[in-house]
Structure to design on (460 residues):
């Protein structure tokens, strides 16, 4: 650097931060517990990369703009002040970008939901930083990672900072803690650097009360936030849900079992669940439709299509579908009925609904005194299985779940509409009439892009 340009002095790093700086794997995750100095390390690592490589493009992402401003924009303006004063770096608030004299760029963005992703599609970045990665869904993570590319010699890396808990807990744990890889994922590409509050010597010296605060947290939250224990999930709404208990292979559905459809409809997502009740009150979710961008009539026809040949007792839907449209005076329920799907109004009381779901998820003794759950979900219902464990408590109401990210609420809401409604079990048949009946069930087939479902029918 020329003598007339200000030199940037990088503060001393602790051993875990040093390991983070020196990591060369394509995917590097740093953290585990709160107070480990993760954001500090990410800010300085981005700055060093921008100074070391002329013309490199770096993207830093947080979930919300407020978090981005408080954890990155303001601190980086302070950290890089000597270079800004010396003309080596300038910050443009309209672009949310730090421009370096050597043509490097650090772009700051946020991803509060899937609707924020299109701004990154088609863009090319050499390095991506995702701060608090467990606040993003796996789909959002994969979409952002797709922009890390380019025909140049710059390093192509994705740095993540993360704590246990949050919407992305399961996928982060799978990749970096359990190291369970799928498809083209290469184990050699992934590195996890665990860090706790004890590694952050600066914080321990300047704010010893922070550790005392962590020690006062309730069990579960304390182990996750203080120790970085990934087996505790802070804020998980349904502790009762367990894939080993509630998810089953598709099985025979008897002809006399009662069948229902429960749905949550909006143009952003149609979520519909087909549920069968046996003689003992067990509930089997045996089919789902989870599709975006459907008009009311298209949504109704999809439900009618997958219900063809079955006796559906009721199509359960929330009260808002009976609201009259100002222009036509018709309701969404009217249009569903015209398409052959007469809806029955269920309760939209969230607290009562989630209590009903929780009752169906809890373990109860069966005739053999083995514990099982009344609710069973066919493993083909991938979105319901994916979304249930991702729900988190509403911070203002512990009897309700958070409504953000909105994408994960649709399938659980459909289940809630069914569980809260009064339903009767199938009539008990005389033993001599209990003849096994082969049952064909339709499962919407996932399309190649993973965003919707095609017309393929699966038969067992």
């Amino acid at each position: 650097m020329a003598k007339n340009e200000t030199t940037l002095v990088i503060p001393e790093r602790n051993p875990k931060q040093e390991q983070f700086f020196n990591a060369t794997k394509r995917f590097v995750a740093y953290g585990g517990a709160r107070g480990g100095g993760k954001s500090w390390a990410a800010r300085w690592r981005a700055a060093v990369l921008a100074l070391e490589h002329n013309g490199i493009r770096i993207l830093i992402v947080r979930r919300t703009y407020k978090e981005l401003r408080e954890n990155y924009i303001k601190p980086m303006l302070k950290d890089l002040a000597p270079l800004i004063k010396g003309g080596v770096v300038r910050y443009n608030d309209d672009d949310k970008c730090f421009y370096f004299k050597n043509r490097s760029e650090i772009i700051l963005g946020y991803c509060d939901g899937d609707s924020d992703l299109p701004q990154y599609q088609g863009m090319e970045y050499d390095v991506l930083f995702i701060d608090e990665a467990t606040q993003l869904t796996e789909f959002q993570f994969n979409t952002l990672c797709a922009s890390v590319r380019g025909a140049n010699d710059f390093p192509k890396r994705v740095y993540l900072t993360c704590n246990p808990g949050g919407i992305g807990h399961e996928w982060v744990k799978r990749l970096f803690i359990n190291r369970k890889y799928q498809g083209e994922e290469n184990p050699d590409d992934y590195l996890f650097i665990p860090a706790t509050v004890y590694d952050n010597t600066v914080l321990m010296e300047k704010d010893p009360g922070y550790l005392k605060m962590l020690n006062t947290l309730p069990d579960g939250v304390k182990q996750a936030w203080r120790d970085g224990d990934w087996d505790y999930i802070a804020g998980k709404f349904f502790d009762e849900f367990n894939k080993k208990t509630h998810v089953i292979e598709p099985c025979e559905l008897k002809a006399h079992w009662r069948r229902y459809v429960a749905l949550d409809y909006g143009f952003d997502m149609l979520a519909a669940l087909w549920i069968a009740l046996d003689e003992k009150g067990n509930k089997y979710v045996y089919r789902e439709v989870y599709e975006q961008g459907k008009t009311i009539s298209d949504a109704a026809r999809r439900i009618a299509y997958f219900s063809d040949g079955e006796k559906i007792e009721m199509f359960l839907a929330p009260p808002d579908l009976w609201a009259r449209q100002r222009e036509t005076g018709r309701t969404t329920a009217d249009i569903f009925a015209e398409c052959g799907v007469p809806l029955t109004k269920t309760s939209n009381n969230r607290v009562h609904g989630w209590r009903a779901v929780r009752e169906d998820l809890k373990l109860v003794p069966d005739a053999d005194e083995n514990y099982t759950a009344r609710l069973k979900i066919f493993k083909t219902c991938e979105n319901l299985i994916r979304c249930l464990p991702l729900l988190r408590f509403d911070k203002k109401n512990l009897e309700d779940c958070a409504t953000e990210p909105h994408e994960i609420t649709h399938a659980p809401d459909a289940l809630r509409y069914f569980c809260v409604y009064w339903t009767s079990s199938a009539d008990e048949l005389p033993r001599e009439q209990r003849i096994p009946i082969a049952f064909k069930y339709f499962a919407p087939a996932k399309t190649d892009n993973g965003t919707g479902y095609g017309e393929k029918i699966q038969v067992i």
